């Protein structure tokens, strides 16, 4: 909930657009009061893309049918060009106004005190200036800032209504929350509304169903994606493409299991500290039977699962050089309980592969890549189609290198991202370089190494030729990182994955390589999953392409459509040739009219339709239709196959 109270200083820094939108919240409240004078207003901040106001309206439930009426009233108020007037008041004056129902009202309302405003007043720290803003008859408890006059608030639109607990607190009354948006000009408002319409059409959850790309089944579990054949094809093509690029860059492919013992994550530090974002560990039957016989309760079991041996504790503390494992976590060996975790990340498994053999500086960098599936516990309210899930496959890789190699390796990671995004027609993206906050003690390790790694990230980001920002304090505690944010064709931003430099895990796992001096040295690790996960990336791609995938990604590339059964023989020969050429083709020789067949193919967003009738059969040719470009003329089947094969091979858009 964004019900956090803003300080006066934060308010003073409110952007122009937020100031406008917050002013519109006052205008909306004024309009609602003209229609329902008993409304009690709580809290009305600007939010991303708009504003809302929470209010109690006991005798009426706002529905979309009311929006027009409220908007009309708001436009009237804009026309009236009311001035927003600030007035400082004492606490007593404010309390008196609230008690009379005047705060958040158009008039005094005897017997209907402004209860939420009274509560908000209590939250204002002693000594802070209390103020009201008035426009027309509406007086609100507010520190501002506001635009000058309501005439600025004319380009508004009510968007939706929802329920919300007062201050986001479930124990408090449930209120109605009305959302709106506003822009300085009508053009900007219209453009925003068109974009929202377009976003609705492109919604990957909607298209995912229509194009049979993926399925979520309650019995399998929320947030767990079933990739149906069409979606699986899309994902496989994408993975093939990324894998090809990885091979060119000298990565080695590995496979690792979906689970690992908890001791692995105790060493890495992922368990039990992040246990709230993980699935509970799986305990072997024999162990479970044994501890049940011992009469071990739930709490004790969790404690024993999270505990470490004295040996592991001293090893870890010695390696890291500080007390990362406290003494209260140690239990005698016969009390320790190990289970398996569904892996929350792939790093520890890859570390074990690196550490499975002696490494020399000549072997470095070692680049291990895996489309590795990980599981994280997300609250059910957070789940969203493919973009917020509980099981996902990262385009993961871990690079183990010398300190001198960090800069080149980070650069390599970025150039791969550039190739992939450009191929997908995503030219508009930016990167964020997360640096440490020098004033914070959260960021451990040698400051000189940090400086070098930050410089490497900064330089690498600069070579991309895209906008980048430096964000102090946004680094991971173990090293700096680079995040990717892409803008899709309708201007929405999507956060993808990251590249992170890590000095900590090599220490925790005591990794080493033999240097030219014949002595052991510590490698640096780079984690990189630039596209985040296949689930999220495919979700974004579905929306980016609006389901109209280029031929190389399209689950179905070509559909052969017959005009009449007289063309069946030649059409089935065409179909056989397409299959033989390795194309994903289907054959529609149903009795439907050709118009209906084209419409179906169009709805399924098949890039190429080959229309075959008697006329085409006579000249051994096909009439080619593209789902977006329309009619492409009649050509011999061999020519079409040669053309589309090139198009797919070159991964043209
Ligand atoms: Zn205000
Ligand atoms: Zn990792």
In brief:
With 653 residues, the protein is an alpha+beta fold.
Care to describe what's here?
This protein is of the alpha+beta class and 653 residues long. It has three domains: 8-197, Threonyl-trna Synthetase, Chain A, domain 2 (Threonyl-tRNA Synthetase, Chain A, domain 2, 2-Layer Sandwich), CATH 3.30.980.10; 231-255 and 345-544, Bira Bifunctional Protein, Domain 2 (BirA Bifunctional Protein, domain 2, 2-Layer Sandwich), CATH 3.30.930; 558-649, Rossmann fold (3-Layer(aba) Sandwich). Helix content is 36%, strand content 22%. The chain has 21 helices and 27 strands. The chain has an eight-stranded mixed β-sheet with strand order 11-14-15-22-19-18-16-17, sandwiched between helices. A hairpin with a 3-residue loop joins strand 26 (621-626) and strand 27 (630-636). Helix 7 (204-210) packs across helix 17 (534-545). The longest helix has 20 residues, at 16-35. It is globular and about 80 Å long. The relative contact order is 0.08. The model has no long low-confidence stretch (mean pLDDT 93). The structure holds zinc ion (2 copies). The site of one zinc ion has 5 residues, from loops. The site of one zinc ion has 7 residues, from helix 2.
